[in-house]
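Human: If only I could read backbone structure tokens as easily as an amino acid sequence. Underneath my words sits a plain record pairing an amino acid chain with its backbone structure tokens. Take your time, and here it is.
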Amino acid sequence: MMNFEFSMSKMIDNNVVCLSERTKVTEAMESMHNAGVWSVIVTRRGQPEGVVTERDLLRKCFRPGEDPSEMELSDIMSYPLVTIEEDLPVGSVLKMLLMEEIRRLYVVNANGEIIGRVTQTGCLEETMNLIVGMQQIFEQM
């Protein structure tokens, strides 16, 4: 019998980039590209304050009259940063992502430090992997 693990640990992406609120948008874009991420955590005095996503960049920076090289992350960040504890049950995470229409949640450890993020896409992929695995087991019975 196969053992299926359906836990937060399989859904967490640990590739997280944190940048100061004073970082210029063009610098942030380069950091995002180099790290292969679609969002960055914006910090204020070293503490997580908000988030800037690829969508924020497109909607808030690339408009007539705006100059991304002059804008800072604090000008376009979304806040507050939505965080969850790393031991939160998967069902609660899925509910937040899907029912409350949150695209990404940042995972904090017991010390309140950000250790990764969970996204709608990542959760749905893991859910599909579980369903496909269960289907394969039932087909073998």
